[in-house]
Amino acid sequence: MKTYFKDNLKLLRIEMGVGQVELAKAIGVSKGIISLWENGLREPNMSSLICLADYFKVSIDFLVGREQ
User: Fold this and answer.
1) Which of 3, 32, 34, 42 is most deeply buried (CB count within 10 A of its CB)?
2) Residue 23, Cα to own-chain centre: how many angstroms?
3) Which pLDDT belongs to residue 37?
4) Percent of the chain as helix, strand, coil, to the nearest 5
5) What is the domain range of residue 38?
6) pTM for the structure as a whole
């Protein structure tokens, strides 16, 4: 089954018990951006992907669905 960035982001956020507002503050974006990403309406730029990977301690490949 193919996974997508939006699904992986939401899964990681929920597994860690982090709200959209808390995540947004931690990586320096708005809560609205997190919502857009999780709904698949926008995709993050490279600097945001790096921040997310660092925050969740996962690889960028995992975030974008290239590895399980």
Assistant:
1) 34
2) 9
3) 96
4) 60, 0, 40
5) 5-57
6) 0.91
The separation between CA 64 and the C-alpha centre of its own chain, rounded to angstroms, equals: 9
Query: Which residue, among 7, 20, 36, has the nearest Cα to 55 in the 3D structure?
Result: 20
- The C-alpha atoms of residue 42 and residue 15 are separated, in whole angstroms, by 22
20 domain residue, yes or no: yes
**pLDDT per position as a tens digit, 14-58:** 999 999 999 999 999 999 999 999 999 999 999 999 999 999 999
- Domain presence at residue 19: yes
pLDDT above 70: residue 60: yes
Query: To which residue do tokens 């990681």 refer?
Result: 12
